[in-house]
Design a protein that fits this description.
456 residues; alpha+beta; four-stranded antiparallel sheet; 18 strands
Amino acid sequence: MENIIINILAMLLTLGILVTVHEFGHFWVARRCGVKVERFSIGFGKPLLKWTRQGTEYVIALLPLGGYVKMLGEQDVAIPESERHLAFNHKPLSQRAAIVAAGPLANFLLAIFLYWLMFMVGVSGVAPVVGTVKNDSPAALAGLQAGDEIVAVDGESTRTWQEVQVQLLGRLGESGFLNLTATSPERAKPLVARINLERWLNNDAEPDPLQALGITPFRLDIPPRLGEIVAGGRAESAGLLPGDLVLAVNGDKLGGWLEWIDIVRANPESDLQLVVERGGERINLELRPALTMAEDGSERGFIGAGVSTPEVMPTLPPEMNREIRYSAWQALPQALSETWNNTVFVLDSIKKMILGLISVENLSGPITIAQIAGQTATYGFEYYIGFLAVLSISLGVLNLLPIPVLDGGHLFYYLVETIIRRPVPEKVQAMGMQIGITLIVGIMLIAFYNDVNRLF
């Protein structure tokens, strides 16, 4: 229940910030162009709070899934002669275009500011050092080994696992070669692991690029030594005892307790051949994890055994910690670059979705946004503002798409008006509005359906 409350509050805060900034962009430029703003609303539906200042009614409404700026002259109603100079539809085309474009532009400016702030505060991460490589996986066949550090993906430098993931996600749905540049103290020169992709993960609803390549990041681990054994559980039935050290599973050497958990969870009702060390001797045992259902509805293995906590817990080597921090001046070009790269990524993802190169199941709605907002808020400041920046960019890009109803649709009409030297006929605009509404509602329904599917 506590998590649900945190998620809802984080979503309200997130959407509130994004919508307010977007609508303020329209509002600010409209005022500078001499347009009378009749209402500035955050949210839709019944007003929860409203006040009037300098002729504008400010509203905070019940449904926080958007907002709007109502300007004089937007509706087809008679305008007194004395106020025509204040009406939106009586302003020059250049001013109308500037007012419409100001909303998405404000979202991009917000993203730049957030990234600037994030890079000044500092971004922490873990060096992209490979922990294990699955046998016969694409990464293994390309020569990647445990202990390698991935220093570049397709020639783009990577300093943390997060940067590796971003580069890999950019290749979803594509065909061709993926190049991973890796270094290691054991290598005389860097390895360029060349991996062939064919419509890579295009049907995956929740793609995991690292898992698909067969790569597990280096993780702090403790010895896979068993502690408490649950009476009547599969571990006891297999003959396992407290203090047993699991050395190998199905012939593969076991790295640590976290790897052991992954193996057990991934093999419900499957026979596992174990080699354990007990009292200085090696013993062969057969274990069959029981089938259980996780909270997310997935099937997992369970054996009824706990871990024996070591006296001294391991710590991450200092060279594995990466903190990226810049001065105020240095952070600005980094923020501009990050905003540009993410804008290109969002546009590329939309193109791939339209072409069928990636699944529409990747679309997310308010439920997923609430969950991620809640998680990032609990992780810390840098994670939350990074997520907020990505959402702001996504909102800016989506609003610039040439779809009637959206800002991009209005800008498209203005472009046509510039070319034909007269406004687009009202019948055409009305038809486009209906198509736009249908399209947007359809996208929202798909996103909501995906959200519900992820819950169950």
